[in-house]
# Entry
Amino acid sequence: MGFSVECRMRLISPFRAVSLILAGLAVSGCASRIAAPRPTLNYLEYNRGKSFPTRSDLQLDWNAHSLHLQDVHFTDDSFFPDNFIIPNAFLRPLIQLRFSDALKAFTEPYYGYRLIHFFRSNPRIGLGIEFTHHKLFLNDPNQPVRVSGTYEGKPMDQSLSVNAFIDYLSVSHGVNHLNLIVTYRWLLSPTIAIPDGRWQPYVAAGFGPAFPHLELKLAEDAPEWSEYAYRSGPRNFNFSFGIGTRCKFSPHLGAYLEYKFSYSHLHDMHFYGGAGNLAMEFVTHHLMWGISLIF
# Structure
């Protein structure tokens, strides 16, 4: 009886040992899978930037007048009131403990936000939404341009200064692009902590509505000729294309630099109680730099 019990114990104990070893391997494998970092797929980004001067034809209609001003030059004033790539409008009030004024610096003069989600099945491809705020200023109303069309019931086609008809014109509270964007990235220099790569060159394309904030004063010296309002409409839209690179300092923090080309089609900018309309379309070159919060 004692012999059979001893034999049974000797036979069973190796199976138990193997079972324990297999269980230990399984647990350690699960633990290693749990501990291994996964690629981060969501990018919340904020940028500053600069848009560059551009040119646009203007179609100006009010009452019985219809004028086409060709090749009008606009500037950007992208760093106003900072006039430098570092936002002094943020740093100065921050040092002076004027926190509300410091926060306002993040909404002027050029800024943008975007949220991008990369797909787990293909982390190179992402879909997101982007808001870009940039400006236009007619800082030289004395510039000569070709003016054609109808004025006071008479046809005209001659070279005149812009200020013959416009005292002041800007889209200084923003051309304001709101785009759906698609992006493709390359995942370079992966590490254990950052499996999707420290360096991520990318290309992106976007399309969506534009919400221009028109500021206009026609040459006639009367209050009703002034306009200061946002203008939305089905003919206010834009598209963009960008190329850039992103650097991940850690799994949850990065920075990026991007060049972007955009086209703005602004044909629904009404004024004078809806009796007048200003239309323009132009291309813009942008240089953007920003930070990425990654999760």
Observations:
- The radius of gyration is 30 Å.
- The longest strand covers residues 253-271.
